[in-house]
Write a structure and sequence with these properties.
This protein is an alpha/beta fold. It has 15 helices and six strands. α6 packs across α7 (143-158). The N and C termini lie far apart (43 Å).
Length: 312
């Protein structure tokens, strides 16, 4: 189901007291927004929460308004939703959310009370970097790519036929996804495969983009990751069955120190795990397709990768 929060957000900006209106907006959509803040921003209480609200409602939104005048984002999102649902033969409902965030993730996945959510934060897709919103300046044409990516996560986490470690952990948490709890309890192998599956789904659904865009890389970073693939693979191999938020950050996040990312005198590029994960998953996609792979366990995908490597 498509959930469009844009009208409510612009209404609060146009109110006489936007900060107070944001709190009412948060309360009206608390099921979604509380999970967004907890997973991608900060705990939505206290002075820091208030500071972010004030910054958010005071930001210059001219780039966003201009983009929305040019681009029918609702149609983009509906089309991407249907294409991804068809590609994965989705056997579970997923909410697709169009929203304005607070400058955190450009897109993300959530599970709340057992229902998967794929959202895009449109301040990042205006085509113009905006310091007042922390907008990344991504092109709006990338919205379907990111929605397909996050939709794949939601299916992997919630499908009754999923055999993934992520589904087990989310289910054990009462059907609620936590970036931090899954970081602590899920193996690095599952995290890499989880992102690799999503990259392959986005490639299939949103075709025609530059190769590096499916990973959220720039062209130069993409070249460096490809060059260092053997080193990245060697580094990750020794940690595949380990668990810890630090490992998730090391391979799948920005902002981690070079010292932490150094292996065998090479500095692993930030977020290098997206590329490695996609490579790990490719043999399974080729052998069984996306519908099977998105639900497969990491062990099943690893076995196919190992068999393909043995016959190469």
């Amino acid at each position: 189901m498509l959930i469009n929060l844009l009208p409510d957000f612009f209404a609060l900006l146009d109110s006489t007291n936007p900060a107070a209106a944001y709190r009412r907006y948060f309360a009206a959509h608390e099921r979604l927004l509380k999970a967004y803040w907890l997973n991608y921003v900060v705990e939505p209480v206290g002075p820091h929460f208030d500071d972010i609200i004030r910054t958010t409602v005071a930001a210059d939104r001219s780039d966003l308004r201009s983009m929305l005048e040019r681009i029918d984002v609702v149609t983009l999102a509906r089309t991407a939703e249907q294409q991804t649902r068809d590609a994965l033969a989705a056997d579970v409902d997923v909410d697709v959310v169009l929203m304005v965030g607070v400058g955190a993730a450009n897109a993300g996945e959530l599970v709340v009370d057992g229902r998967g959510i794929a959202f895009v934060a449109l301040e990042h897709f205006t085509g113009v970097a905006n310091p007042s919103t922390d907008g990344l300046g991504l092109d709006a044409e990338l919205i379907p790519l990111w929605l397909a990516h996050e939709y794949a996560h939601a299916v992997r986490y919630t499908s009754p036929t999923s055999r993934s470690e992520m589904r087990d952990v989310v289910a054990s948490a009462g059907g609620n996804y936590s970036y931090w709890d899954t970081g602590r309890t899920v193996s690095l192998r599952e995290h890499l495969i989880n992102e690799g599956v999503a990259v392959n789904v986005s490639r299939a659904v949103a075709q025609g983009h530059a190769a590096w865009e499916y990973f959220g890389y720039g062209r130069k970073q993409y070249g460096r990751v490809r060059e260092l693939e053997p080193v990245i693979r060697q580094a990750a191999t020794g940690e595949m069955e380990s668990r810890g938020v630090g490992l998730r950050l090391k391979y799948l996040s920005d902002g981690v120190s070079e010292l932490t990312r150094t292996f065998s005198r090479s500095v692993l590029p930030e977020r290098s795990g997206y590329y490695l994960g996609a490579r790990m998953v490719e043999p399974a996609v080729e052998a069984h397709g996306l519908e099977w792979t998105v639900r497969a366990s990491a062990a099943e995908i690893q076995a196919i990768e190992s068999a393909a490597a043995a016959t190469a």
